[in-house]
Specification:
The protein is mainly α. It is about 75% helix and about 0% strand.
Length: about 190
Amino acid sequence: MPKIIDGIEEKIYNAAYELFSKKGYESVNMKMVANKTDIAVGTLYNYHKNKKSLYLSVLENSWQETLHKLDKIIEDKENGDKLENLVNELYTEISARKGIAQELIKASELKEIKKKVINKLKYKLLIRIEEALECHKDYKNAEVDQETKKRLVKLIFIEIIAMNNEFHDDKQKNIEFIMNSVNSILS
């Protein structure tokens, strides 16, 4: 009879999340996750058939809470500048999972299954940026066509990731830069 380990799935998730967030997909292997979880590699394979399966599980689950936070920002009627608050929250979330966030902008090794998951997540994040943009004071007064709006949403998304990578220790300056970029395009 196999040994039952209390909370093992949560332990595996937490270990994998930490490793993938810090090191990215390529630099992590199942042995590292097993060691961090303090279980045998074979036990890990009882829960996830391979690294790709584990990674996709972590990817999808880790962003659910972020999407919920972004929704709350958009839905909050009292929220001042929804776009800036959303950019701030998304910046924080991407910073916390740097290795995982990189997958949002690069084509990768996980082929079609991963592309579907990544594209679905990107779509959800871009929709939330678009909703916050539509509430932004300068957007309401600007004459912005649909193509410009799409480009602006993508620009915000990519700038958050790029600024986070390039100038990681300057969060507030990066957010100000992103907001100034948005405002200059809208003026």
